[in-house]
Specification:
It comes from candidate division MSBL1 archaeon SCGC-AAA261G05. By secondary structure, the protein is of the alpha/beta class. It has 13 helices and twelve strands. The radius of gyration is 21 Å and the shape is globular. It starts with 17 loop residues before the first strand and ends with a helix. It binds pyridoxal-5'-phosphate.
Length: about 400
């Protein structure tokens, strides 16, 4: 079992596997590869060099494309090394900069935010951890009740990586605004899949990762609203408006820009198509295997569904699917193969007999109805086999 993908196989689209683990990572779009190639093969100049015209222009062009995901200007985008770095930069950067030490976050954040907040607790921060309801949603009034005079930051993710449940960000943005508190959101799973307009949502900071929307791995970005002060995580030579030292990963950034452009170009069409496939999947899996859907049925990412199979092992279902040529995950990629129920499901109050049998299916732009039918048919057979062997 590959502990990073939980799928036990190395797969890309078009190689015969049905790849349904897009929440873990997506393949690199061919268009992104083509855009990156000149910067891998010949155009090697440093974007900061005075003669570095074409590299600098390419980075700035990509910055504009990534900014479009947030419906904002390029000045508000800082390139980083990954989504985890962006999360750390936001949370730790605000703590280092702002007067006050109270942070409000949730118990279902990705470990990049959760562990950054725990680290800050050890450094003297006071963190209020808001729990979700049984549908995996954070109640905005719980966030409002947690805010105090000395609150410096609210950090709530846009869509959860395990359940796909979308959080009520606009309401939380209003609370942040009314209380004059900075608002960060981990938009790693949502950006490029649903609209993420920073001003409309009321975001001051938002994290991105290219490999979740058909860009390369190892490149991320942080939306930093103009005027937001932030201490850098990586001090260095003044790159990225002095907020992130280090020579930029030019080819990666160019690939990210291309991927952002592609994601935006057919966002609505893809959103509708994947929502339709998701509904078909949910209805069929529930009807033919008796599995439960975990999390809010309405507010969820297109193409994402998390199922619970009573008294079964999620990793075993994932392995059985892999043997039949289907890549999926037993929940959070980082926890795959771990028989302990995930923290997110515990927080949602999912009973242990269900929480150990989870299967996350996350579709992408090349997923078809035939792929959905194939996974449903195989799940029906697998669950029947498991039940009859008991
Ligand atoms: N935040 C969320 C919600 C994620 O799903 C992930 C990756 O799974 C990350 C952050 C981390 O992104 P990266 O892999 O680029 O560090």
């Amino acid at each position: 079992m590959d502990e990073n993908t939980g799928s036990g196989l190395v797969s890309s689209e078009g190689d015969g596997w049905v790849y349904l683990d897009h929440a873990a990572t997506t393949p690199l779009a061919e268009e992104a590869v083509s855009a990156m190639r000149p910067f891998l093969e010949g155009r090697h100049e440093n974007p900061s060099a005075s003669y570095g015209g074409s590299a600098k222009r390419a980075v700035e062009d990509a910055r504009g494309k990534v900014a479009s995901l947030f419906d904002t200007d390029r000045e508000n985008v800082i390139f980083t090394g990954c989504g985890s770095e962006s999360d750390n930069m936001a949370v730790k950067g605000v703590f280092e900069t702002e007067d006050g030490d109270h942070i409000v976050t949730s118990t279902i954040e990705h470990p990049a935010v959760r562990n950054a907040c725990s680290f800050l607790e050890r450094k003297g921060a006071d963190v209020t951890w808001v729990s979700p309801d049984e549908d995996g949603r954070i109640n905005p009034s719980d966030v409002e009740n947690a805010v105090r005079e000395d609150t410096i930051l609210i950090s709530i993710m846009h869509a959860n990586n395990e359940t796909g449940v979308i959080q009520p960000l606009r309401e939380i943005g209003e609370i942040a605004d009314e209380n004059d508190v900075l608002f960060h959101s981990d938009t790693v799973q949502s950006a490029g899949k649903i609209p993420t307009p920073a001003d409309e949502i009321g975001l001051d900071l938002a994290s991105l990762s290219a490999h979740k929307f058909y860009g390369p791995k190892g490149v991320g970005a942080l939306y930093v609203r103009d005027g937001t002060e932030l201490e850098p995580l990586i001090h260095g030579g003044g790159q990225e408006r002095g907020l992130r030292g280090g020579t930029e990963n030019v080819s990666g950034i160019v690939g990210m820009g291309k991927a952002a452009e592609l994601a935006l170009a057919d966002l609505e069409e893809r959103k509708n198509r994947l929502s339709g496939l998701r509904e078909r999947l949910i209805e069929e899996v529930r009807g033919r295997t008796g599995a439960r859907l975990v999390g809010d049925p309405e507010n969820r990412l297109p193409g994402y569904a998390l199922f619970c199979f009573e008294d079964m092992s999620g990793p075993e279902i994932v392995e059985a699917l892999a043997e039949r040529g289907i890549a999926a995950s037993s929940g959070s990629a980082c926890h795959s193969g771990d028989p302990e129920p995930s923290r997110v499901l515990k927080e949602m109050g999912v009973e242990r007999k269900y929480a150990t049998g989870t299967l996350r299916i996350s579709m992408g732009r090349k997923t078809t109805e035939e792929d959905v039918d194939k996974v449903v048919k195989n799940l029906e057979e697998i669950t029947e086999e498991v039940r009859s062997s008991k």
